[in-house]
# Entry
Amino acid sequence: MLKIRRIPLSALIGIAITVLFVLAAIFAPWISPYSDTSVVGDVWEPMSAAHWLGTDNLGRDLLTRLLYGARITLFIAALATALSFTLGASLGLTAAVIGGWFDEVLSRFVDLIMSIPTLIFALVVLSVLPVNTVTLIIVMGVLDSTRVYRISRAVAVDINVMDFVEAAKLRGEGRIWVIFREILPNALSPLVAELGLRFIFAILFLSALSFLGLGVQPPMSDWGGMVKENKDGIVFGIPAALLPAAAIAILSISVNLVADWVLNRTTDLKGGRGNA
Amino acid sequence: MPDALLDIRHLRIEATVYPPDEPSHDIVIVDDVSLQLEKGRVLGLIGESGAGKSTIGLSPMGYGRGGVRITGGEVTINGRDILKGGKRGLRRLRGKEVCYVAQSAAAAFNPAHKLMDQVIEATLKHKVAGRVEAERRAVALFRKLGLPNPDTFGNRYPHQVSGGQLQRAMTAMALCSEPDLIIFDEPTTALDVTTQIDVLAAIKDAIRDTGVAALYITHDLAVVAQVSDEIMVLRHGKLVEHGDVRQIIDAPTKEYTKALVSVRSIEHEEKRPHEKPILAVEHITAAYGHGAAAVPVLKDVSVEVCSGQTLAVVGESGSGKSTLARVITGLLPPREGKIRFDGRDLPPRLGQRSRNDLRELQMIYQMADVAMNPRQTVGTIIGRPLEFYFGMRGRERDKRVAELLEEIEMGKGFLDRYPAELSGGQKQRVCIARALAAKPKLIICDEVTSALDPLVADGILKLLLNLQKIEDVAYLFITHDLATVRAIADSIAVMYRGELVRYGPKSEVLAPPFDAYTDLLLSSVPEMKIGWLEEAIEGRRMQSAGN
# Structure
């Protein structure tokens, strides 16, 4: 199937770093040296043998916080992306197949939501609803699903006019078969590439929300929240805020590298931009 | 021939392929082909797809399509080896000494610029002539090529003229800089036969009057017989036979050439229509769009297909023949009229029809590669109608799929293949098997052979006729190709601009006296005979003079 040697270097680096982050997130309770909520030192201690990355604004071990932060960030971002894809793709494909007023109403509704800046929209919704992990995932997922709806509908409209879909309709197949057996397998490649990009967007979005205080609530903390907690230290030359920020950046870039490669591969298959 | 204009020696062209799951490697596209061409001569390059004819045709411009490169031999034009000239040499060559006429003029013209600017562009770029002189030349060429209003034709945009006119404008573009050599790459393949004959005559006259040399690439031997002095037959990148046009057409020596010349060897006994039509289309009127903006495409069309027989629906593009298929399948409900099938009325809409209605009426498409889901295996594609209509599962289904694969002359080895792993002819066979799996009473065949090479198409037609005998299925065969019609039809319906102009048993439709349109259509089909073009054009002139 897929030979490792044929994967470009940039994608390999992306895959390696992403896998590292995911492993760190999964095994955080086992590999982190301290408990994530206990104060184990002074405020903003510098890096030392005891605290590899120093301590944070309350004296908690920063490495431990980062590992647990990865767990929360990746967990919420993954679930939100899964929700946005399930919702966006199924509605997008259905709209493309049914067409007519259904498509029209749904598409205009999505336009309506997309015309409001996502962050403002999320802030308003989250300040009204009780803030917990479930609400956060649902709000992020629903808002992001508008983007997924757009792309999956666009892809499906193209496939829907192909002769093999017409052949299935002439055979008398129902909509479920047409959507899931004829169209979805052919729309999968561009959607998978989009998945990576939307996942990054979810991480950035979550970080932004937490930084503004409407995301993950203390004492739990994701990376965005950690930047917020430690941002005051920057004035005193303390790098504690930069480490979670760097984690966000590195993860985004590495997932992006993987997504870019997937996108290239899928366009290759369709005879698009060649990238041997 | 030391003073030949174009001299290609031992040309070898390779390309790198990147098959999925395999290391990339080089394949040879053209192997050891040599040819010489003198001024004023026309050489026809003929072969099926993949024969390397276009690749050879492009080599005098020093051009290889994506990833293709010339790895051996030499190409000399006017005594200069163009492969050694570098980019600068090629720039001097292209558009000045060698010009190119592409297959699809509609795709080759830039829709944002007026025709005149595009026709004289190369002439101006190469400083062959100034703008005033170039435009004068272009207008003269428009006149010579028989374009309407030659003085103002250049002011139009590409979308404002017809496909045949565009193809002639492209010929004018090639001739404008007065090159030594023109490469015609299937210039009439995308045109209707009635348009093709005019374009062919225009091209032939222009070549003769300007004394330019030409390479004429086509897969249609009858066309190339009209315009060429010599013919080269190619197959799999190798030369099969090269000779004078008369020798190739009248006395071919190689087996492959003989097969090409004698193609359409199908023997088909015409069956008389009987009293039991399986399908009766009664006074159908149909239109696209709604209300006042609706575009009528079918006007009061009535035809019948008898069970076990073939009705061929013939017409050029825009005649409404494909729309007729859409109406019958229920994709486009008619405005007026009804469809009777096997003695019962068919509901006009697809959604209202019963599963049995759908089963008994199957369809085969022109482009087999988009008619099959690329993510399903052959086994799934053929097996699905069995599951869907007959509830077959497991071993029973697999057994029937294997039987169907036998019927279409393909083995069980194809079960797990994906459509991308099949050849064009095999794809169409799988589509036929999928239609047959439903045990239909009528199959609508929409241009099923027009995307295939002649020999492959022949095989498909023979298969269809055989299956008709075995399964007693009726065909509604939509085509623009009269040779196909002659080969397989029992009755014929000729359509023109949404109306039925002639309809009846084959022997009556194809026998005089003809109506004007059928006559035009029949006389436009190129015959494998030298001098046919002149006769046909002369015949038309006589007729219009007589009127």
